[in-house]
Amino acid sequence: MADIKALIKTVVTPLVQYPADIAIDFKETNRYLEYNLTVNPEDIGRIIGRQGRVASAIRTIVYSVRVSGPKRVRLTIEDGQKKNS
């Protein structure tokens, strides 16, 4: 699991202005190995890109990693802002 985290961090770090704010959380469900990428709110546009092209490219790279077993990798991108409940 740490290899996928390292891959995400390696791909994302050169794209952002605040690399110290990058956080990657991992959660395993019945069907997925879920990774939540959180970046500084000022960097979210750089990660998503125009019409989501950068986010799509990041997901393509991450999803191409071979994992053992039937589970698939899922990447969610969040902007780091606290959500009001």
Automatic annotation (TrEMBL):
Query: One of this protein's Pfam families, by short name?
Result: KH_KhpA-B
Q: What is its main location?
A: cytoplasm
Tagged with keyword ATP-binding: no
| Family that this chain belongs to | Belongs to the KhpA RNA-binding protein family.
Q: How does it assemble?
A: Forms a complex with KhpB.
This molecule's function is given as:
A probable RNA chaperone. Forms a complex with KhpB which binds to cellular RNA and controls its expression. Plays a role in peptidoglycan (PG) homeostasis and cell length regulation.
Q: Specify the protein name.
A: RNA-binding protein KhpA
* Source taxonomy: Bacteria, Bacillati, Bacillota, Bacilli, Lactobacillales
